Every structure is written in structure tokens, then in C-alpha cells.
Amino acid sequence: MRSSSGRTGLVVRGLALAALLGVAACNPAATPTPPPAETTPTPPASSPQGGADDVNHTAGVMVLACADPAQQLCSPPVSVTVWTEGRLIVAFNASPGHCSSVIAHLTLDGQDRFTSPPLAAGDGTAPQDFGPVSPGEHVVGIQAEGIVGGCNSGGVANWSGTLDLTLSGAAGVASPRVETPAP
Fold this sequence. Notes:
The protein is mainly β and 183 residues long. The protein is built from 1 helix and 10 strands, in the order αββββββββββ.
């Protein structure tokens, strides 16, 4: 969510999603950790050159219960709404608590943008430059796909990790949310 003035800063709300990075893929009995404190970083003033006004943010993402734990592609996806003046760089880091590898499917505004190679527990992708994007609001989505091995014998029950986001200018990040399927 953005601050009430819209251009003065980035308001980031700590969520249970960000704190539950200890939840292991395929292990619904894992114990979550307490949520982090709320933070309010303030980016530098915007500049037309870019770079100097970058804002970095880490968003915790997870699905506690995949719709069909017998499937490898975990539904529903998770989305994070961001505001940027053009720069949008995204990286995903799998939770170190995972007991099997996952593939991360990243989208931007509903369009497929990147599919990772298999990521073991604690592994991450290289930063993916999704920009330049038009100034304003965009939705970064992520969906995890399991790989047989470790505790995964044919499906994913849950997963978690973090999205590292680099944005520019009057930037902001809303709380991650799990998509709700249409009735």
C-alpha cells in the first residue's frame, strides 16, 4: 500500500505470509514463525535518470494449502501489487524449509514472464528484469510447481519463499495475496 501522499514513501506491511518462511513444501505440519514488525522505508526523490531512485523490497509469499495436493502445480497463485515509475526487477528465493525442489513461474500483469529451473531449498533465481514497464500499478504473480524427490512423491501441499523486488521512483508494494478462484 502507498502512503497517503503517494510520492513520499513506501509503506510495507509485515504479513504472516512474510513470516511463514519456515513452512516446508510438502510439510503441512511445519510450525510458522511470528510475523515481522511493520517497516516504512523512504525512497530518495525520483529522478529521470533512474537507478538512484531505486527502492528494494522483499515480500514473503506462500500458499498454506494447495487446492489439489496431488498435483505438482500448486494453485492458487500468489500476487503482489506494486507501483513503479518504470523499473521492475524480480527474483524468487525458495524457503530454506522446503523438503523438495520447486520450479517458480513468475507472471507480470497476468502474462508469463519467467520459469525458473528447479530450485532446491534456499536456492533463488537470478534477478529478472521485467522492465521498463509503464508507470503505475502492476501485478507480479508467482506459482510454485513441485518436483518429485525429497518429501514430494507426486504433489505439493504447500510452499513459501520471498520475492525480491526492485522498483523506481514513487514506488510501493501492497501486501501479497493468494488468488481466489472464480465460482
